[in-house]
Design goal:
The complex is a heterodimer of chains A (128) and B (124).
Chain A: H1 22-47, H2 55-64, H3 68-95, H4 103-127
Chain B: H1 14-41, H2 49-55, H3 59-85, H4 91-120
Classes of the chains: A mainly alpha (128), B mainly alpha (124).
C-alpha cells in the first residue's frame, strides 16, 4: 500500500522496483498503466477528431498509424489495457470479499493471460 | 497481499469508489469488443473512414460507443483523483482538483458525443 503520508516529492517511490512482493508489483503496474492509458485516452479522442474532417484527413492519419513504430506504441497501449482490465477485475472481486485469499494466484494467472493475449495482438497487429 | 483488499481511501466517496469499480468492469468488456473490432475485424488491421462510418450505421454500436465514452471518461478521472489523493492535497487544492476534473470530464463527454453523432450521421 502507498504511504498514507506521502508527499508529492516522494511520488517516484510508487515506481521504485526494489523490495516488492506480488501485490506491490500489481500496484506499480496498475498505476503505470493507469497513467499511460489516461494520457492515451485523451490523445485518442483528440486524434479521432479527424473523423469530423472527412475521409482524406482520417485515412491519411490511418496510413501514418500503420508505421511499425506507431504500431509498437499502439501495442503497448493494448497490453496496458489488457493488464489494467484484468487486474481491475481482481481488485473488483476482492473489494467485495471474493477470492481474497487467492489474490496472489489470481495475479499470476492474470499475468499469464496478459502475456498470451499480448502475443496474439502483437502477431495480428504486425502482420495485418 | 493475502489479506489486503481494496476499499475507499480517505477523501474518496464510497459511491464514487463503487462507480470507479463498476465502470471499470463495464469498460473492460467494451474494451475487448473495441480492440477486436479495430484490430481483428478490420480487413487491413485498422478501420478506414468508410469502415468507421459503416460500423456506426448500426444504432446499437452508437449506443455502445456512447456508453463506453461516458464511463471510460468517468473511470479515468475518478482514477486520476484517487492517484492525486495519494499526494495528500490540502482541502483547497482538492477542491480545485475536483472542479478541474469535473469540467474536464464534462468537456470530454460533450466533445466525444458530438464526434460520435457527427460520424453516425454520415452516409456510407
Amino acid at each position: 500500500m502507498p504511504n498514507p503520508h506521502s508527499k508529492p516529492a516522494n511520488a517516484w517511490r510508487w515506481f521504485d522496483p526494489r523490495r516488492r512482493d506480488a501485490g506491490s508489483w500489481a500496484f506499480v503496474l496498475n498505476r503505470i498503466t493507469a497513467i499511460g492509458l489516461t494520457v492515451y485516452l485523451y490523445l485518442h479522442l483528440i486524434v479521432l477528431g479527424k473523423l469530423a474532417q472527412g475521409p482524406e484527413a482520417f485515412d491519411s492519419f490511418i496510413e501514418l498509424a500503420k508505421r511499425p513504430v506507431v504500431i509498437f506504441g499502439e501495442l503497448l497501449v493494448v497490453i496496458a489495457g489488457i493488464y489494467h482490465g484484468l487486474n481491475g477485475l481482481r481488485i473488483a472481486l476482492t473489494s467485495f470479499g471474493i477470492a481474497v485469499p487467492y489474490q496472489k494466484q489470481l495475479f499470476y494467472g492474470l499475468m499469464i493471460v496478459t502475456i498470451i493475449a499480448s502475443l496474439i495482438f502483437a502477431i495480428r497487429m504486425f502482420t495485418a | 497481499m493475502i489479506d489486503t483488499k481494496s476499499s475507499p481511501k480517505p477523501g474518496e466517496n464510497t459511491w464514487l469508489w463503487l462507480l470507479k469499480i463498476a465502470s471499470g468492469v463495464l469498460i473492460f468488456a467494451l474494451l475487448i469488443i473495441h480492440l477486436i473490432v479495430n484490430h481483428f475485424v478490420a480487413p487491413e488491421g485498422l478501420l478506414t473512414y468508410a469502415d468507421v462510418v459503416a460500423y456506426f450505421q448500426n444504432p446499437l454500436v452508437v449506443v455502445m460507443e456512447g456508453v463506453f465514452l461516458v464511463f471510460v471518461v468517468l473511470h479515468s478521472l475518478l482514477g486520476s483523483r484517487s492517484i492525486l489523493l495519494d499526494l495528500n492535497p490540502s482541502p483547497g487544492v482538492l477542491r480545485a482538483i475536483d472542479w478541474f476534473l469535473s469540467l474536464f470530464g464534462l468537456a470530454a463527454i460533450v466533445y466525444g458525443l458530438w464526434l460520435l453523432l457527427t460520424v453516425a450521421n454520415q452516409s456510407v
